[in-house]
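Slide 14.
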Amino acid sequence: MKTVLLTGFEPFGGETVNPSWEAARQLDGETIAGARVHARLLPCVFGAALDELYRQLDALRPDVTIAVGQAGGRPDIAVERVAINVDDARFPDNAGRQPIDEPVVANGPAAYFSTLPIKAIVAGLRERGLPATVSQSAGTFVCNHVMYGLLHRGGPRAGFIHLPFLPEQAIRHPGAFSLKLDDCVAALRLAVELSLTRGKDEKREGGTIH
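Slide 15: predicted structure.
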């Protein structure tokens, strides 16, 4: 049986929940398109997040890996296209670390592109009435750190998806977009399915810059 690794993050930035983990954990043990999903929690800490990710990659040897994070300022589900080799934190991570203008991997390439069928995922989400875009930047916090480190390892299909706030979080952030947990779970389930079943990505317009 094929294996899927789905990772989410612990809460950070004063939040008590993180939609990435709340959604990912709902799919742990589920079989999607003939593959078993394994959900794993990553610390929101530079370095430690990659250490844990690599432990899970070595243990599971997944056919597909989708790392998921929270992007509370975004108005939709953001399927990331590219990770850059820069850690540049506007605020400290959960261990108090705040790297500025440091590489994720010393002497690594400037960037890596997702190997997920990103436009097929966005199209599929939109067809189901879920707001989604191709995002051209995963930022420079721990999410980008994990995406870059994941793609640097190489291997089968891998990439990153950002989820917006959950409704209970958005209450504390007036004007912020939010998405119900059930919709977040449905979005990740579809992303896993398409990552397993689509041989090539779609050629469509629809990317946006964040």
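Speaker note: The CA atoms of residues 4 and 174 lie 36 Å apart.
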